[in-house]
Design goal:
4 helices, 26 strands, about 400 residues, mainly beta
Length: about 400
């Protein structure tokens, strides 16, 4: 019975558990089995996108409509407040997310998501996520199930709008929450975690780099990007990435683009002398819930066509909602002089994995890809920990020069 009180072993991404967790008994909720894509077809489609467009696909949306007025169950808790719950099941999914076409939470109400056995939850999601356009997507929930639980205390005024029009079905490049995660994720074994010794002097730049999940006509893709400052030094929420990650993505789909901050292994443990213990750099948990949903397109480089490959392949976006200061966002400086650099690093999310760092010690070379001086060629080198490189999902990530500026 899903209403039973769970043990203290669940993994929380929030400060308070869903209200139903503390109730001794609740009636069972509606569970809906969704029709799911063929896994072989998904991998074939992903391979085609990779080969033809350089895009890293990791999921697809199953379009079906649900809302509290048509599906799920309402219950009254012991304190008189009301909850609505609905469980959606997608066979063989690595993780799932809920897509909302009409989302609005009254002030004082909240929404949680969790898996079917209550070992992991995220929330509370509250009215801060409301937007005039009403579009919203949750973070993905590890496993085949997502349970949505809406809670409305007795003194809250207003009705929620929770109209779901699809379920994100993720079939690769998905990694379980902290306590379930093995020592490394799905990127190549040579990759170097950003908080290994190689990243010691790049901590501000590290905080500028984000993982991006792009929704485009029912398909989801993974890329990287960096928050960048303006010449006014006003820390406006500008996000720099690669055009081929989001070429042709509609304005409405850009409002579903998810920006993930601080997705990395923690900084090394500190020994009794106050020094980092670097042997721990490849272990430990990571933040999962530092997300912002929705961006606006400001500029891109598709002046020569070809989805960015014939130009300088950049896209400049603006994150719609305020980034929380507690996430320590950093807005990187940049160098537009066109000069290369003899040394530096790349910081990125290969295969959508936790944040990595790759190092170069020979001069960047300006190369011609459809337009003169449109791309940098970089040779990554072996370092103390391993030999970091770039791979699918690294697209859009910054190259930092020896002055720690994006080039």
């Amino acid at each position: 019975m899903l209403g039973l009180l769970v043990s203290s072993s669940f993994i929380a991404q929030g400060t308070t558990a869903p209200p139903s967790f503390s109730e001794g008994y609740l009636p069972s909720m509606e569970k809906i089995e969704l029709s799911t894509p063929d896994m072989n077809d998904l991998f074939a489609e992903a391979d085609k996108f990779e080969q033809e467009e350089g895009r890293t696909m990791n999921g697809k949306i199953i379009y079906e409509n649900f809302s509290p007025t048509t599906h799920g169950n309402w219950s009254t808790l012991s304190d008189g407040s009301s909850i609505w719950r609905l469980q959606l099941h997608a066979q063989d999914a690595m993780s799932v997310a809920a897509y909302f076409s009409n989302f609005h939470l009254p002030i004082g109400s909240s929404l949680w998501i969790y898996n079917s056995d209550k070992t992991y939850f995220e929330g509370p999601i509250d009215h801060i996520e409301n937007n005039d356009h009403g579009l919203y997507v949750t973070n993905d929930m590890w496993g085949e199930d997502i349970v949505l639980e809406y809670h409305q205390p007795v003194n809250v005024v207003g009705e929620p709008k929770l109209e779901i029009n699809g379920l994100g079905y993720f079939f690769r490049y998905v990694y379980p929450p902290a306590a379930l995660m093995a020592e490394r994720g799905g990127s190549q074994a040579c990759e170097v975690n950003v908080n290994c010794p190689e990243g010691e002097h790049w901590q501000f730049q590290r905080d500028a780099v984000v993982r991006i999940r792009i929704t485009d006509s029912g398909v989801t893709f993974l890329c990287s990007g960096s928050m960048v400052n303006t010449t006014a030094l006003d820390c406006r929420q500008y996000l720099l990435s690669a055009l081929h990650c989001a070429d042709g993505v509609s304005d409405s789909d850009l409002l579903l683009l998810q920006v993930r901050f601080n997705y990395e292994r923690p900084w090394a443990d500190i020994d009794e002398d106050g020094q980092p213990e670097w042997e721990e750099c490849g272990t430990g948990g990571f933040s999962s819930a530092h997300n912002r949903t929705g961006v606006f397109r400001l500029a891109d480089s598709n002046d020569n066509g070809g989805g960015g490959f014939s130009g300088s392949d950049f896209i400049l976006l603006e994150v719609e909602d305020e980034i929380q200061a507690a996430w320590t966002p950093y807005f990187a400086g940049w160098d537009a002089s066109g000069g290369g650099s003899a040394t530096g690093v790349g910081i990125h999310h290969p295969a959508g994995d936790i944040k990595k760092i790759s190092t170069y010690t020979s001069s960047l070379q300006s190369v011609w890809l459809g337009a003169p001086g449109s791309h940098w060629e970089v040779e990554w080198v072996e370092t103390t920990t391993n030999h970091g490189v770039t791979e699918g999902g690294s697209s859009g990530s910054p190259i930092f020069n020896s002055d720690k500026l994006v080039v």
